[in-house]
Design brief:
The complex is a heterotrimer of chains A (about 350), B (about 290) and C (about 290).
Chain A: E1 4-13, E2 16-26, E3 31-35, H1 42-50, E4 57-62, E5 65-66, E6 77-80, H2 92-102, H3 107-121, H4 136-149, E7 154-158, H5 166-183, E8 186-191, H6 194-200, E9 203-208, E10 211-216, H7 218-223, H8 228-233, E11 240-247, E12 252-255, E13 260-262, E14 273-278, E15 284-290, E16 293-299, E17 303-309, E18 315-321, E19 328-329, E20 332-333, E21 340-343, E22 349-350
Parallel strand pairs in A: 3-8, 3-9, 6-7, 7-8
Antiparallel strand pairs in A: 1-2, 1-4, 4-5, 9-10, 11-12, 11-14, 12-13, 14-21, 15-20, 16-17, 16-19, 17-18, 21-22
Helix pairs in contact in A: 2-3, 2-4, 3-4
Chain B: H1 3-39, H2 44-49, H3 60-69, H4 80-111, H5 117-126, H6 136-145, H7 152-156, H8 163-174, H9 178-187, H10 191-202, H11 204-219, H12 223-228, H13 237-245, H14 254-274, H15 276-286
Chain C: H1 10-37, E1 40-42, E2 49-51, H2 55-62, H3 64-95, H4 102-110, H5 117-128, H6 134-141, H7 152-180, H8 184-192, H9 197-227, H10 229-235, H11 247-257, H12 261-290
Antiparallel strand pairs in C: 1-2
Classes of the chains: A alpha+beta (about 350), B mainly alpha (about 290), C mainly alpha (about 290).
């Protein structure tokens, strides 16, 4: 168990720079989820922490020790791979014991640790089997077991749930969370799935184009996304963005369609271009707001997702409770307390009222 | 007669024709062997007279015993027992030698990045284009210079380099997921440990398949032993057999020669039949 | 290509060393010597040699017996390849049908792969020897004078038959693998389209097999050029006269028997060029297959 400190990690593959300086502090026992679309550099970051990749510049500090130049084996980390990387010719026991055997741990001790981990994971009866005789979920548990027996300072998860079917994924997600809490091992978890990220992480790192776009708790990221990328990436369906211009001392935004929306406070100079963000679930039926033409209704049982188009042609998505029968136009209001304001140029969040 | 009945008859006729074709094919390949086996059970005069027997005679034990212990033909050469042992040692050394050095070469080329990697790969690869047959004389001179004539080392070592086996293992190693290497690194396994604990066990099927092909390759060597060996104690059975026949003189001890031919056939045929499944897979995968 | 590697430089070189030493010592050095010697000519006593540039090549290429030998090698190789390919394809198509005992047939057709070319020749000698062979005597008994030791045409025929016989099982294995990799659905579609079995074979099966057939053609030609040395050496020793002397056999006689090093070396180099061309052709094919 240990803290992790990343200091300005940069990485280039030849002329292409994939990480533009990531700094991160992880507390002892904390679960950090690194989330982002493919190609954002999240896996590279994880592999740099593991020592499988060498950073171009910056430092990796595990438990107060700078491990930047060390081999993976000397960093005392364990990793769960996307395809599990279980050795097909070794039994479950053999797979879990391999790392300990190489480190020269005494036989009895290996036996004890593997048994313990296997019981913890509910795979105690499978120790003699080969990986190909296991189901996806069982393999996943073995891969976890292999990491647990090592009793490392750091757990690294590289999209470990992406090969499971949807139902199993939800189940394993909860299991990983419980296990990590119980063992209290500092963990980094990489995923492209925002639901996985929200449910697993104590804090999230949202990666975008080789930068950490935002590092915060899941609720903070949902409630106060740092920029339009984060706002659009977290939350489903994605947030609506409406171009607008500020007026009235920056306290009112006038949408492209002509609607004037009051803001909770000043958001900038008059005439400045902004993007007004509103999550689909925050739109409410009612007059005096937007009136999109509804093109498609997706009934989900407890709620309905409506896809519409504003008179100027821009799309708008709304999520309303219950079954909604809407044909043609529908009137929707924008509650001021649920609006997010972003700078139209940089996409950065603007705190209204400042 | 309705169409269904006609179709049924036609299908039966087709099946019978197919069977006949295949049986004819099998016979074409089995018959020469049958004749040889039968010939090896008769005495020397029966065959020498030209009465080609089609049924077994009573001299099998005598013929096989003579071939085994004394050899036969005008050449009255090396006993078949000796030659079989030589062929066996040669074929096994060639097969295992080729597998060993191809495994390590392919491992180096695939799992490491080092300067000159591609040069090494191409040097091995180009040997595909230099079969023994096209460089007979200079290779023979090299063997003389190195004093390897009439030695088992000389017989085996030059045949151990293998571009084909190296290519096969390289191909296979490329399919081993990167994650295994990464998991091994995190587990703390170095390259040699990874080779022994992971790569070698995963290659077992490929090694078995290749073993069959290479064993037969070694056993069937002809020109090379002919050049390198003139000491009878090192004679291999395939070359020894044709030396027994010489010019094909009718006065040869044909019964003993045929018994020796059967000895020469048995080991490779047995290997192919026993390991047929692996062998077919290995063959079609090696030579792509 | 693999993305993850181990560190180290000394270890990989060490692992490559045995292979590289053997290749260098027994492949590149002799090949280099062959090229070097092909430009030299030794005097009658082998005491001195002088540089003669391309004279050895010119001599070889203008020697009528060499040209005859080349033409013979061509005839021989093409005959062996076509015979071995044709029989193998026919048998593979039969064995690929859904009939009882198909696996037994396959086993019984695969094993001749294990027979050495020289041994195949011996088996055929037992059948076609004019005095002790069943068929040799039969032919003579029918009034057809048969003695491959005296008649060049008969000798060549016998060498071709024995060489092709040995190669059929190899081709059979590949054709069968090729046939089995043709998706059933394609054949079923053709059957539903109403194509007759013959038509199905020539319009669907054969085109899909053509990459295999082409690959095998190259392999068979290489086999006929080089590996049949054992067949010829044990059956006819190139004779009678020179009627079964192929190019490779001639390198052997000129070099080993007549000790004409310069000429033998020049012939070797010419053959090397031939192998390189054939291998290049084969790899162009492999490359194409990769793009499928």
């Amino acid at each position: 168990m240990a803290t992790l400190h990343l200091q300005d990690i940069r990485k280039s593959f030849g002329p292409t720079q994939v990480l533009h300086g990531v700094t991160l502090d992880v507390a002892d026992g904390e679960m950090i989820v690194i989330v982002g679309a493919s190609g954002c550099g999240k896996s590279t970051l994880l592999r740099i922490v593991a020592g499988l990749e060498t950073q171009t510049s910056g430092q990796v500090v595990i438990g107060g020790q700078d491990v930047s130049g060390l081999e993976p084996a000397d960093r005392d980390v364990a990793m769960v791979f996307q395809n599990y990387a279980l050795y097909p010719h070794m039994s479950v026991f053999g797979n879990m014991a391999y790392g300990l055997k190489i480190r020269g741990v005494p036989k009895a001790e290996i036996e004890r640790r593997v048994k313990e981990a296997a019981e913890l994971l509910g795979i105690g009866a499978l120790l003699e089997r080969r990986p190909r005789q296991l189901s996806g979920g069982q393999r996943q548990r073995v891969a976890m077991g292999r990491a647990i027996v090592r009793e490392p300072k750091l757990f690294l998860f590289d999209e470990p749930l992406s090969n499971l079917d949807a139902k199993l994924r939800v189940q394993m997600r909860a299991e990983i969370r419980r296990l990590q809490r119980r063992l209290g091992v500092t963990s980094l978890f990489v995923t492209h799935d925002q639901v996985e990220a929200m449910t697993l992480g104590d804090r999230l790192v949202v990666m975008h184009g080789g930068h950490a776009a935002q590092i915060a708790t899941p609720m903070e990221i949902w409630a106060r996304p740092a920029d339009t990328y984060v706002a659009g990436f977290i939350g489903s369906p994605a947030m609506n963005f409406l171009p607008a211009t500020l007026s009235h001392g920056g306290a009112v935004a006038t949408l492209a369609g002509g609607l004037a929306v009051p803001l909770p406070g000043r958001a900038g100079a008059d005439g400045a271009g902004v993007l007004i963000g509103i999550r689909p679930e925050h739109l409410r039926p009612g007059a005096g707001g937007l009136s999109p033409t509804i093109e498609l209704v997706e009934p989900l049982g407890s709620e309905s997702v409506l896809h519409g188009r504003l008179p100027d042609g821009s799309p708008l998505t709304a999520r309303l409770p219950g079954a909604v029968h809407a044909e043609g136009a529908l009137a929707l209001t924008l509650p001021p307390e649920s609006l997010h304001v972003f700078d139209a140029g940089s996409g950065k969040r603007i705190e209204a009222g400042a | 007669m309705d169409l269904a009945e006609k179709t049924r008859r036609r299908q039966r006729r087709d099946a019978i024709i197919t069977h006949l074709c295949l049986i004819l094919g099998v016979l074409i390949f089995a018959f020469p062997i049958y004749l040889t086996v039968i010939g090896s059970t008769h005495d020397v005069n029966t065959i020498g007279r030209g009465d080609v027997p089609l049924l077994p005679g009573g001299e099998a034990v005598a013929n096989y015993a003579q071939a085994w212990e004394a050899g036969g033909g005008r050449y009255m050469g090396t006993p078949a027992g000796r030659m079989l042992a030589n062929s066996l040692v040669m074929a096994l050394l060639i097969a295992f030698g080729k597998i060993a050095i191809s495994l390590t070469s392919a491992y180096a080329v695939v799992f490491f990045r080092f300067p000159g990697r591609m040069v090494c790969f191409w040097l091995i690869f180009i040997t595909l284009m230099l079969p023994v047959e096209v460089r007979i004389i200079p290779t023979f001179q090299v063997m003389v210079d190195l004093q390897l004539i009439n030695t088992m080392t000389g017989l085996v070592v030059p045949l151990i380099a293998s571009a084909t086996a190296t290519l096969l293992f390289r191909q296979f190693f490329l399919t081993i997921p990167d994650e295994y290497v990464e998991a091994a690194k995190i587990d703390g396994a170095g390259p040699l440990r990874f080779f022994k604990d992971v790569v070698l066990p995963l290659s077992v099927t490929n090694i078995a398949a290749l073993f069959v092909i290479l064993f037969i390759y070694g056993w069937n060597q002809y020109l090379w032993p002919l050049l390198i060996v003139n000491d009878r104690s090192l004679e291999t059975i395939v070359v020894g057999l044709t030396k027994m026949i010489g010019g094909g003189d009718s006065q040869n001890e044909w019964n003993v020669i045929m018994a020796t031919a059967v000895y020469a056939l048995l080991p490779p045929v047995a290997v192919v039949l026993l390991m047929q499944r692996w062998f077919v897979k290995g063959l079609t995968e090696t030579e792509k | 290509m693999r993305k993850v590697h181990f560190k180290g430089v000394a270890l990989p070189y060490l692992l490559l060393l045995p292979q590289l030493i053997i290749t260098g010592l027994f492949f590149f050095w002799p090949a280099g010597m062959a090229i070097y010697q092909s430009f030299l000519r030794e005097d009658a006593f082998g005491l001195s040699s002088q540089f003669v540039a391309f004279e050895n090549y010119a001599d070889v290429l203008s020697d009528p017996t060499w040209l005859e030998s080349a033409a013979r090698t061509g005839l021989f190789s093409v005959s062996v390849a076509l015979l071995a390919l044709g029989v193998a394809l026919f048998l593979a198509v039969q064995a690929d049908k859904h009939i009882r005992g198909a696996d037994t047939y396959k086993t019984l057709l695969v094993w001749p792969y294990a027979v050495a070319p020289a041994l195949a020749a011996v088996l055929w000698l037992f059948m076609f020897h004019p005095n002790i062979g069943l068929f040799g005597r039969l032919l003579n008994g029918l009034g057809i004078p048969w003695d491959y030791r005296l008649n060049g045409g008969q000798a060549l025929t016998l060498v071709i038959l024995a060489s092709a016989w040995k190669q059929v099982s190899y081709n059979f294995i590949f054709f069968l693998a090729g046939l089995q990799s043709i998706p059933r659905s394609v054949l079923e579609a053709a059957a539903i389209d109403g194509a007759s079995p013959m038509r199905r074979f020539w319009t669907v099966v054969f085109p899909l097999l053509s990459p295999t057939a082409f690959f095998l053609l190259v392999v068979n030609l290489v086999y006929a050029f080089f590996d049949t040395f054992g067949v010829i050496h044990s059956l006819t020793q190139g004779g009678p006269g020179k009627s079964t002397e192929t190019l490779i056999y001639r390198v052997y006689t000129d070099g080993v028997m007549n000790l004409n090093l310069g000429s033998s070396a020049a012939q070797s180099v010419i053959l090397m060029i031939l192998v390189i061309v054939l291998t290049a052709v084969q790899f162009r094919y492999v490359e194409r297959k990769v793009h499928y």
